[in-house]
Specification:
This protein is α/β, with parallel strands linked by helices and about 625 residues long. The protein has four domains: about 1-85 and about 180-230 and about 370-415, Rossmann fold (3-Layer(aba) Sandwich), CATH 3.40.50; about 95-170, no CATH class; about 230-365, Fumarase C, Chain B, domain 1; about 420-624, Rossmann fold (3-Layer(aba) Sandwich), CATH 3.40.50.300. The chain has a seven-stranded parallel sheet with strand order 3-4-2-5-10-1-11, with helices on both faces. A seven-stranded parallel sheet has the order 14-15-13-16-17-12-18. It is about 45% helix and about 15% strand. It has 25 helices and 18 strands. It is globular, with a radius of gyration of 26 Å.
Amino acid sequence: MLSRHLGKWEFRPDQLEMAREVEAAIDEQRHLIVEAGTGTGKTLAYLVPLIAAGRRAVISTGTKNLQEQLFQKDIPFLERALGRKLRVAYMKGRANFLCREKLYAAEKRPVLEGLEEVTDFSVIQEWEPETETGDRAELRRLPADSSLWPKLDARRELCSGQKCEQFDRCFITQMHRRAREADIVIVNHHLFFADLALKENDFGAILPQHQVVVFDEAHEIENVAGQHFGVQISNYRFEELARDIQAVAAREGFGSAELDRAVNALRIRSEEFFALFDEVQDRRGFRDREQFIRKHERECSGLSAALQALGGRLKLVRERTDEILPLENRVVELTGALQTILEGDDAVFVYWVERRGRGVFLQATPIDVAEILAERLFAAVDSVVLTSATLAVNEGFEFMRTRLGLDAPRELLAPGHFDYRGQALFYVPEHLPDPRDPQFAARAAAEAARLLACSRGRAFVLFTSYRQMHIFHRQISFSLEFPCLLQGQAPHSALLEEFRETPHSVLFATASFWQGVDVPGESLSAVIIDKLPFAVPSDPIVDARIRKIRQDGGKPFAEYQIPSAVLALKQGFGRLIRSAADRGLLALLDKRILKQAYGKIFFDSLPDYTFTTCLQDVEEFFES
């Protein structure tokens, strides 16, 4: 049936086997874990049996881009092939949608600042009567960094729910209605686990009831689940609360000098509190919290008191409007989160602080989500399918089963549709020093320059740290004859677009380009990785997981650090071969894969590439 509707149809045995496994898992109400190598065609392999099963299913993707591809490309293709309309809906987080009530209120009482916001407002006004979804993704003319959109989006914090005059016309209401009527609902991981966490806290579900879940890019769900089952506060959350209270007070007419003083007091106390973390770079553990509170008792108690005073002032507002209750709830939620971060002593959490730009984030994250997922996901849903190109370590799934709390699932290892031996050359230079040697960076950068000369640019050079990325870039970018792009010089999407459109370009990048990036064709002919991607042991979450495994009598290096690095390396190498026509070099500048006993685990986990340690083989590969 599909071959009649797909011009370049190729029969793929792995795709058919995966589809049969998905069908069996649904029929038997069992869980399934599938590593589907690039080129398997895993999307159709799970969509077709889902449709045939006739049970309500949720598909959760790693990115919003993949979510939109499913809804706008794959589902319409299957509808044409089947000759019938499918009942499919997609759901995103509320911040992706326009709030009509906010838009109409802004027309009466403008909240615009500067000419850019005036222009953006006109664009949104013109679009609002035409859109059926209210999804910002439709607004191609709105800048990605628009400062106006957060003032008009439909996030929960200022939503009055059914009491809102626009409730029936609300894009969120309409999204939920479509989801309730659908057989398949397409979401992303963050929304799925936000929903799971809301159910845990008895706040009500986002997603409709379902019998089947498919996780596409399932290798990401441990970290995403950890974020949503934890607690976070930030200077942004306090500033947004203060801003929203003043905006609602002005709009609804309950502002007062006393309320203004309470809001300003919160701002001052928040600035004083978060200034205590000015010296934090990146992320670090927050394990000395008792000592921190004793040393900074004034700032800690002052912020808590400011929150309580503000909540009390809101309760004294005489003219109770529908928008006051959400504000009061936010004050209560922030008060509880602050107390948890500072005083929580639950051993299942790791407490840490991170600086990202101007933001300071304090977090409590579950060290291990296996028990949570076992109870709240795998025991609650008839059939869960986990699929990705990177789930197996040493041709087995024990690592992922353990990390996710998955007991006795069906399993399938589908190696993929590509001729890896013919399409890819894997090169490891034996002559480079060990990565822990002080001379490694300089000599490895020079080796990368030689490889880039062979590939004539057209490469990703991927790093395990920003520091290493900048060292390589400084040493070789000016001597290369190819255009060099550096992560951080422009937004992620802009860099990727420039890479695709600029012949022979080289991109120097870190973790965010290791996965979810698709550049088929000759534009990407080499992927060079500096080191085996072992997680940094000093990272607070990694450190907590290592300590827990050790406390439980395990061996963290063998049970956690090596398997995690294997999956990360597979993700990095997975950027190269994206179609049957792709051909290129995979280079790892870390000879430990050859010298250490654990190197065999990496080799046994990777596809069957042609392998060499000789630079001449690389030169001949690109000349052939």
